[in-house]
Design goal:
The complex is a heterotrimer of chains A (351), B (357) and C (584). In chain A, 39% of the residues lie in helices and 17% in strands. Chain A is built from 12 helices and 11 strands. In chain A, helix 5 crosses helix 12. Chain B contains 8 helices and 21 strands. In chain B, strands 7-8-9-3-10-11 form a 6-stranded mixed sheet, with helices on both faces. With 584 residues, chain C is mostly helical. Chain C has 2 domains: 247 residues, MetI-like fold (Orthogonal Bundle); 259 residues, MetI-like fold (Orthogonal Bundle), CATH 1.10.3720.10. Chain C is 73% helix and 0% strand. Chain C starts with a helix and ends in a 9-residue tail after the last helix. Classes of the chains: A alpha/beta (351), B alpha+beta (357), C mainly alpha (584).
Chain lengths: 351, 357, 584
């Protein structure tokens, strides 16, 4: 994915506002191509998906929706944080064993690496053409395709922090008044946090984190961990938390508030790819079609995730994309930077 | 030096009465054994003395002060007594010196005095050279001595021993018997010794209390117990004996084939005509090939040898007096050999007969 | 041979046949035991020796090329952070072991030697703490003692009006306490077993010399069981340094890195098994060192009285103090079982656990999600059951055969087998798993991601428990039982299967159950070896904890506990209430 400019996304946002929702999921109306893939996939029977992008609940729901549309092809959802998913993939490779069919990570850098090492299968899903224009050509060589549009921002517990007191920017977090109140994930586990750390380092240098450390944030593993802590009232401000998780939590009655930092929100436009020696290649291709196609959208909307195709309003409680400032490091910056920030993080935070 | 008084001491577990109204008085420095078969209540009595068991009735007094009574038991650690257990209860994870010094250290004596008394007692029991050994490295007899040293070094008011020699072999037992008595004489501690072995009791004690089924049958010096048993049980328990039923008529006592005058036997029966029980020790009957002179009030009667066993140190004969169904056991020296079926003469010594009841 | 043929006046044809027949005849007399012994040696080499040797050799190999190098050790110990992790592990181990001993020894003393009431209750507490997996307890304690949101702290703040926390579970002390609360059953079982053997006369002797109840306990009773206390201390230490789940869940927020979490980092991309192996070696050395120290400390003294009769054990009367002891046991029970269990149950039925207990916060959604909607949940339960069952069966079978050969002295070097069977005891589970990974995950065997790899690893890891159990059981069966059968014409194998095995049935069943229970909640070894389809409940729980969805996590924990309880119930029915005591 070459650098997304703000302009391109603004255009996409305008397009969203203009079109009407038209993604209907007709149960059995398959195109010829789809049916062909489906027959081949039925013979394989299942697809294993290392999911590092969506939450466990969402991933499970996606898997179920896939099997609903394509009965007799089971979806094995292996959800973990992105780093752990990549670790498992590496273990598989080192053992010379093929377990994973489709790999999804919030760290685009992973895919650069995999592509370079010829570990991905080249395939362009036909549905990719129907995605938002700015994200439909993640890789010109078609080794991977966008499957996730995640926004990572700030959130606070509305019972503990009033609207005025709440932090308004990423740099606000460095204020000593937030000592022992912050919570964040860990770049060693979460791909998104890795990407976020690369972005912060790009904007403010590593000093940002040295100062952040003084506020003693509670470090979890997944980028979602802070949401749990906020729900419980254990900490008051969540840093680099996925908007989808926060909105879902609010919808369940938890006292949270989503915050849009003034510098901008981290936009993780992350892909999925088929592993080259996938044990179920046809089912994998079918799954890629599903991920880029219209039938995944209702699932995403139910879980407050941002849809990948035009024609749907933003999730309830979220601002539309054209009103948000988006930040994202380039894919090369991600590939090179994430391992670096991991080591720096461990040295700075001690864990 | 203490006086220990047991008054009507009783212990019952539910319906089972284990110790039944025991009365006993010990003078200061006296060595008394509780002797009896298993289950006679001697160990329970000892444990009541120690304070491990609470009496159901009766009391125990030490120097005039009641230390045990139903509902009022001074705990063992405050009685100033010592005890030797059947298993010695030497702590295997402590050296000999640590074991023996334990009681002294508990009394918070100055280190110098502890050391002095420790070495004194180790010399007395001849374990000085083994002070740093662990019990696993000692023989049975040596462990026994550690237990003794540990018990005596604290200068207890009363020393209690619970069948301490039952785990040693025969020759060691003899040696340790003397050792225990010697230590008693040296330190003059009031001692209560429980055993089922009469030889042990007799070798060590000033007096022996013979117990049976929870009661004391007789308390006496050892030789008196032997020569003048007062109950059938004591007669049968102490040494071997022939229990013979005889008739007292006026001043004459008679049984199958024998007639004696009343004054000749041990024990003075109340007058009248009634059956009595005599205890006649096997060693007190003489066997002769020809009729002995008798006289001096020593009745003789003919009889036949019906059984014999050679035991090395003596012959054990069973002889039936003529015209009588009695089977009398007679002990004879090794050189005096009689055949089974042989006709012999029995000579009785009334001075060695005891009236039992 | 030919010379003798010429010398002996025998027909040539018959001679040749005789020679062949002689070899066969000799084979017929070879006892099946020798073959069995060979087979067992091979099995044990495969399960125990090979992974270890591979681990050792791999630690000296460069990653891509395989040439000899010391650079792995340099990397593993070059950074202060890695050394810190090692030091943290060792201190954590010492702390947890100390706390576990502190908790369990009074309980063991009270149950074994005094008239404290509620002994059945105390046993239930021990069993409950044994069954509850430590990582589940950790989650429960997060709910209880998170510094701002934990129930305990909120209650304290409400009670005293202060802002401070009573107990922060995200701390070294918190970590040590949570681990100790789930390891103390080991200490309890060992120390109680030893206390049961101490004759009351030992205490009587101290009493009569002037020591009261407590003095006698301190100066006589407890020193007598010192080997058990020391032994169980070491076991808890070893278990602690090998734990992965609890340090990951509590340690990361607490900023405490330990060896296991550090090893996990060496498995990140790129997978550096070589450095991981080098890093893990010192753990092995520490373990061996501890065992040696233990032998030294216990060298000369004996601890069981060698002479005399008297093994009777009477209950010490504590008077009103027995309620104090009961209170202690109840406190331990509350901390280790009741409180975490209650909060976990509450969370499992809650929509959002932070909202507290209220009627509008109740839902069955979490359980529903797991049972009907989560694809892996049911599979992982099935995986756990059959992996653990297979491992338990294999371990008990191997252990029985080895114990038989060793105890009946059937082969000249039988002790080697025994040694191999016990060796995994000194190897932290996670090290064992890495060894298995290094030896068998890649081609030629390529067991990565298969059920077989996990079953083998579990079998090897729990073999020592099974062996100790089988060994004790066989020692209790007199060899003359089999000899009586053999003199009547039964072969040895027949004698074993028809006479000995039925006698051992109960003990073996007990051993099987214990291995099963421990295997079903094993995380540290599993986490390195599972593939996507072979995830166990423990690994799934860990994955769920990464997503921070504690409600579903608690529900899954509830399911895990339910299943374990059912199995324990069956076990107790089949084997008797004291099946856990047959461990050693």
């Amino acid at each position: 994915m070459q650098g997304i400019t703000k302009r391109q996304l603004l255009i996409a946002g305008a397009a969203l506002g203009g079109l009407t929702a038209s993604s209907r999921s007709g149960a059995q109306d398959m195109s010829a191509h789809e049916r062909e893939l489906y027959e081949a996939a039925k013979r394989e029977g299942e697809i294993t998906w290392y999911s590092g992008q969506y939450s466990a609940e969402t991933s499970e729901a996606i898997g179920r929706a896939f099997t609903e549309r394509y009965p007799e092809v089971r979806c094995n959802v292996v959800r973990s944080t992105s780093q752990v998913a990549f670790q498992r993939l590496s273990q598989d490779a080192r053992a010379g064993v093929a377990q994973c069919d489709v790999f999804s990570s919030t760290n685009s850098g992973h895919f650069q690496l995999l592509k370079r090492q010829s570990r991905l299968l080249q395939f362009r899903p036909q549905n990719a053409d129907g995605m938002l224009e700015s994200i439909r050509n993640a890789d010109p060589d078609n080794f991977f395709h966008t499957s996730f549009l995640g926004l990572f921002q700030l959130a606070c517990n509305s019972q503990k922090v009033s609207e005025d007191e709440a932090p308004k920017s990423w740099t606000d977090l460095l204020d000593p008044k937030w000592r022992n109140q912050l919570a964040v994930g860990h770049p060693g586990f979460s791909g998104a946090i890795g990407v976020w750390a690369v972005q912060m380092r790009k904007m403010y240098g590593w000093d940002y984190f040295k100062k952040l450390e003084k506020n003693k944030p509670q470090i979890g593993r997944s980028s979602q961990d802070p949401v749990t802590l906020l729900n419980a009232g254990e900490r008051s401000v969540g840093v680099a938390v996925p908007a989808a998780t926060v909105l879902l939590s609010i919808s369940r009655g938890n006292p949270l508030r989503l915050i849009y930092p003034t510098e901008g929100v981290l936009a993780t436009i992350a892909p999925s790819g088929i592993i080259r020696n996938a044990p179920h290649p046809n089912a994998a291709k079918l799954f890629m079609e599903f991920q880029t196609g219209p039938h995944m959208t209702p699932v995403l909307l139910r879980y407050f995730a941002d849809p990948l195709r035009p024609g749907s309003p933003p999730p309830e409680g979220a601002k539309p994309l054209d009103q948000i400032k988006l930040l994202a490091p380039s894919i090369e910056e991600q590939e090179k930077g994430v391992p670096e920030v991991r080591e720096l993080w461990r040295d700075t935070f001690g864990v | 030096m203490s006086r220990l008084v047991l008054r009507g001491l009783t212990k019952a577990y539910g319906k089972l009465t284990v110790v039944d109204g025991v009365d006993l008085t010990l003078a200061a420095g006296e060595f008394v054994s509780l002797l009896g078969p298993s289950g006679c209540g001697k160990t329970t009595t000892l444990r009541m003395l120690a304070g491990f068991v609470e009496p159901t009735a009766g009391s125990i007094e030490l120097d005039g002060k009641v230390i045990s009574a139903p509902g009022l038991v001074m705990p063992p650690e405050r009685r100033q007594m010592s005890m030797i257990f059947q298993s010695y209860a030497i702590w295997p994870n402590m050296t000999v010196a640590e074991n023996v010094a334990f009681g002294l250290k508990l009394r918070k004596l100055p280190a110098e005095e502890v050391r002095r008394r420790l070495w004194e007692i180790l010399e007395v029991v001849q374990l000085g050279h083994l002070a740093e050994r662990y019990p696993a490295e000692l023989s049975g007899g040596q462990q026994q001595r550690v237990a003794l040293a540990r018990a005596i070094v604290v200068k207890p008011a009363v020393l209690l021993l619970d069948e301490p020699l039952s785990n040693l072999d025969a020759s060691l037992r003899e040696e340790m018997r003397f050792e225990i008595r010697r230590l008693h004489d040296e330190f003059r501690i009031t001692t209560v010794y429980v055993t089922h072995d009469q030889a042990e009791a007799m070798a060590t004690s000033d007096r022996i209390a013979v117990m049976n089924a929870g009661r004391i049958e007789q308390v006496d010096a050892p030789h008196l117990l032997y020569t003048r048993p007062k109950t059938r049980f004591v007669a049968g328990f102490i040494g071997r004996t022939n229990l013979v039923e005889a008739r007292l008529e006026g001043s004459e006592i008679g049984f199958d084939g024998c007639r004696m005058q009343m004054g000749q036997i041990n024990g003075v029966p109340q007058g009248g005509s009634r059956p009595i029980l005599l205890s006649i020790r096997p060693q007190s009957i003489g066997l002769h090939r020809v009729r002995p002179a008798g006289g001096e009030g020593r009745p003789v009667t003919p009889g036949t040898v019906v059984q014999r066993v050679f035991l090395g140190e003596s012959w054990d004969y069973v002889v039936m007096p003529q015209g009588s169904g009695l089977r009398l056991r007679v002990t004879a020296p090794p050189l005096q050999v009689h055949e089974v079926g042989e006709a012999v003469w029995l000579e009785f010594d009334p001075r060695q007969m005891a009236l039992v009841e | 041979m030919n010379d003798t043929a010429a010398a002996l006046p025998k027909p040539v044809a018959g001679q040749a046949e005789g020679r062949r027949g002689g070899l066969l005849r000799r084979l017929r007399y070879v006892e099946p035991v020798t073959l069995l012994w060979l087979l067992l040696v091979l099995v044990l080499l495969f399960l125990v020796a090979a992974p270890l040797l591979k681990l050792f050799s791999v630690s000296f190999q460069a990653q891509e090329t395989g040439t000899f190098t010391l650079s792995n050790y340099a990397t593993a110990y070059g950074r202060a952070r890695y050394l810190d992790a090692l030091v943290n592990s060792l201190t954590l181990g010492l702390a947890s072991a100390a706390i576990a001993v502190l908790l369990a020894v009074p309980m063991a003393w009270a149950v074994s030697r005094t008239d404290m009431p509620g002994k059945g209750f105390t046993w239930a507490v021990v069993l409950g703490a044994f069954i509850m997996p430590p990582y589940l307890g950790a989650v429960g304690w997060i709910l209880l003692a998170g510094p701002n949101s934990g129930f305990v702290n909120r209650f304290w703040q409400w009670l005293t009006g202060s802002e401070g926390t009573l107990f922060n579970v995200y701390s070294f002390e918190g970590l040590a306490l949570v681990i100790a609360l789930h390891s103390f059953p080991l200490v309890f079982i060992f120390v109680k077993a030893a206390l049961d053997l101490v004759s009351s006369e030992m205490e009587d002797a101290a009493n009569i010399l002037g020591a009261g109840t407590w003095t006698a306990m301190r100066k006589v009773t407890l020193p007598l069981v010192w080997p058990s206390i020391l032994g169980s201390f070491i076991i808890v230490f070893l278990e602690t340094i090998a734990l992965f789940g609890t340090p990951a869940i509590l340690g990361i927020p607490a900023r405490i890195n330990v060896v296991t979490t550090q090893l996990w980092q060496f498995f990140e991309y790129p997978v550096r098994v070589e450095v991981a192996a080098a890093y893990a070696m010192p753990l092995l050395l520490v373990t061996i060192g501890l065992i040696a120290v233990q032998k030294l400390l216990l060298a000369r003294k004996a601890f069981v009285s060698q002479t005399g009769k008297g093994g009777e054990r009477r209950m010490i009367r504590l008077g009103p103090w027995r309620w104090a002891m009961f209170g202690w046991c109840a406190l331990v029970g509350a901390l280790s079982v009741a409180m975490p269990l209650l909060v976990l149950l509450q969370a499992s039925f809650a929509k959002a656990w932070g909202r507290g207990i209220s009627l509008d916060n109740l839902t069955l959604r979490n359980y529903h999600l797991l049972i009907f909607e989560h694809e892996m949940a049911m599979t992982s339960i099935w995986n756990t059951i059959w992996f653990s069952a297979a491992a338990a069966t294999a371990a008990v079978l191997i252990a029985l055969l080895v114990a038989y050969i060793v105890n009946r002295r059937l082969m000249p070097f039988g002790e080697v087998l025994g040694f191999l069977a016990m060796a995994p005891f000194v190897i932290p589970g996670i090290v064992m798993a890495i060894g298995f990974y290094a030896a068998y995950a890649s081609p030629p065997l390529a067991l990565y991601g298969t059920a077989a790899l996990i079953i083998f690893a579990f079998t090897a890891r729990f073999l020592p428990i099974a062996y100790a159990n089988s060994s004790a059981a066989i020692r209790a069966v007199h060899p003359e039982m089999e000899e009586a059968a053999r003199i009547l014409g039964s072969g040895r194998l027949q004698a074993v299967s028809r006479i000995t095995a039925p006698l051992l049935r109960k003990a073996l069943l007990g051993g099987w159950l214990i291995v099963f229970i421990v295997a079903s909640r094993e995380l540290s070894a599993a986490i390195f070896l599972v593939g996507p389809r072979t995830r166990t409940m423990a690994v799934l729980l860990y994955d769920l904890s990464e997503a921070g969805n504690f409600e579903v996590l608690a529900a899954f924990g509830g399911l895990l506990l339910l299943i374990t309880l059912v199995l324990v119930g069956i076990g107790m029915k089949l084997v008797g209430r004291d099946f856990m005591l047959r461990r050693i």
